[in-house]
Specification:
With 478 residues, the protein is an alpha/beta fold. Helix content is 36%, strand content 19%. It has helices at residues 54-73, 91-105, 110-113, 119-136, 149-165, 174-180, 216-219, 244-257, 276-289, 313-326, 352-356, 365-375, 416-428, 452-468, and strands spanning 4-11, 14-21, 29-32, 35-38, 194-202, 207-214, 225-231, 260-265, 301-311, 335-341, 405-412, 433-442. It has an eight-stranded mixed beta sheet with strand order 5-6-8-7-9-10-11-12, sandwiched between helices. A four-stranded antiparallel beta sheet has the order 1-2-3-4. The two termini are 27 Å apart. Residues 36-57 are annotated as: Disordered.
Length: 478
């Protein structure tokens, strides 16, 4: 990795950072607080179609990654008041962040524009916005909570890109949102020990699922394999089952927990408001217990041991789908356990985490409010039962025979206190709830595969499932 020579100027709250790695010509790039000016990026187009070759793209990645790492190396020397670094990320992590933005995200726009190389300027501008936020070092209101610099960068990039898809009139720029949601197809050939296939379960609504089958199904003989139904997050309005992060997440769950995972692609708001997401999600259980699913599942699958799992809005869906399943005869399917990963919950009254955690990564109160308004019925507020599960208009679920539940909470999630209240209330009405709080966990931290608490969370999910199945826990090596 090339070293970087840096010149940094601060004018008020504006930063200008000149990044001059040895591998980059000094006249090629000037990195400013409002983005990167790349003097030659626009001249890298190929004749004809204008797409860069793989070698040129790799060269651009190397050059830009050097500048990206160099910007963080500067933080060791910066002296802005109150701007001490909480944690310096490794170069490996920084390069991974860069590759996520450049290759997986903005790089996807290049072919559409006919000149992939030009998007080096755009993705570095997005990254620089995040770096500027880190250099300004605006802390969360609670001084005891520290956000690592690397997570700040990831969070600011994701938060900024998500905000671009939300319109002021309450609609979503679906074309842009779909473009930013980098998708992957199913793979009949196993990837990391798991194969997958897509199946439409409702022709009328085009609701479909992605079925993940671990190789253990081929080698288990007559031993039955449990099922996990997974519901993705996204505030009921964005993200999808074939998005790369969910494809990878479900593969990890299938391989680690040794289960067939069925990931549901439900319809999204505001085009499809409450209760469409709940109805589509329950259809997945009806499909799973029906003969129609037999040809798409391995013969060893055991639907009498079915787990429901979901993150954020998907965690919310787990609650309502589990309650509906408890009132419905789905034989031979039986829900054995429910896993709610930082469930998306709320209320009209603000809770302390919404007030105190104003600058944490990934999501904000403004974003959660926007998505509730887009999903709930017209005129409803956040005390609607879909949002405030134990609010003034919510039904009594104390009589439902619900299975054991595992609730995951992160201390850097604005929804934290809503989740704590949920777990407490469920325990008060006699439900078996295991809750674990992950210190430093941002919203969606379990997707960060190389972060320690993500691995611990995956192991905890496995332990919970195995405890429900009454077998000795097996550690996950992901």
């Amino acid at each position: 990795m090339a070293s970087a020579a840096l010149e940094f100027l601060r004018v008020g709250r504006r930063y200008e950072l000149h990044v001059l790695p040895e591998s980059i010509d000094a006249q090629d790039s000037v990195w400013e607080g409002n983005g990167l000016r790349s003097r030659s990026a626009g001249n890298r187009a190929k004749p004809g179609r204008g797409e860069s070759t793989a070698e040129e793209i790799e060269e651009e990645e190397t050059r830009a990654a050097a500048a990206f790492v160099g910007a963080f190396e500067f933080e060791e020397r910066r002296t802005a008041p109150g701007a001490a670094v909480d944690e310096k990320p490794s170069k490996f992590l920084l390069i991974q962040i860069f590759r996520f933005v450049h290759v997986r995200l903005i790089g996807a726009l290049g072919p559409l524009a006919g000149n992939r190389g030009r998007f080096l300027q755009l993705d570095l501008k997005v990254i620089q916005m995040a770096i500027s936020a880190c250099l300004l070092d605006v802390p969360v209101n609670n001084p005891k909570l520290k956000v690592p610099v690397g997570l700040k960068v990831i969070g600011e990039v994701v938060k900024g890109l998500n905000s671009l898809t939300r319109r002021k009139d309450g609609t979503i720029n679906r074309q842009l949102a779909d473009l930013l949601e980098i998708k992957v197809g199913p793979s009949e050939k196993p990837v990391n020990g798991v194969s997958s296939k897509d199946v439409v379960i409702d022709e009328e609504t085009n609701v479909w699922v992605r079925v993940f089958i671990p190789e253990i199904c081929e080698s288990s003989g007559n031993q039955k394999v449990p099922v996990m139904v997974y519901y993705h997050g996204g505030g009921f309005g964005v993200l999808c089952a074939n998005m790369i992060v969910y494809d990878r997440m479900c593969r990890r769950l299938a391989r680690g927990c040794k289960m067939v995972v069925v990931s549901v692609n439900y319809r999204r708001a505001p085009e499809h408001r409450f209760p469409i997401a709940y109805d589509d999600s329950f259809k997945a259980l009806e499909w799973l217990q029906s003969p129609r699913s037999a040809s798409h599942l391995p013969p060893t699958v055991d639907v009498s041991r079915t787990f429901l799992c979901g993150d954020s809005a998907g965690g919310n869906i787990v609650h309502f789908t589990g309650c509906r399943a408890a009132e419905t005869d789905l034989s031979p399917l039986k829900v054995t356990g429910m896993i709610l990963l930082q469930p998306y919950l709320g209320s009209e009254a603000r809770v302390p985490s919404e007030i105190n955690l104003v600058n944490v990564p990934i999501i904000s109160v403004d974003a959660t409010d926007w998505h509730w308004k887009a999903y709930l019925p017209e005129g409803a507020n956040r005390d609607h039962p879909a949002c405030n599960v134990f609010g003034p208009f919510s039904r009594d679920i104390s009589g439902l025979d619900l299975p054991p539940m595992f609730v995951v909470v992160g201390t850097l999630d604005v929804l934290m206190d809503h989740q704590l209240i949920y777990a407490q209330k469920m325990q008060e009405i006699g439900k078996h709830v295991k809750m674990k709080i992950y210190d430093g966990g941002i919203h969606g931290f379990y997707f960060l595969e190389h972060v320690g608490i993500a691995l611990r969370c995956m192991n905890d999910i496995n332990d919970f499932c195995q405890s429900c199945l009454l077998v000795q826990p097996i550690r996950i090596d992901v």
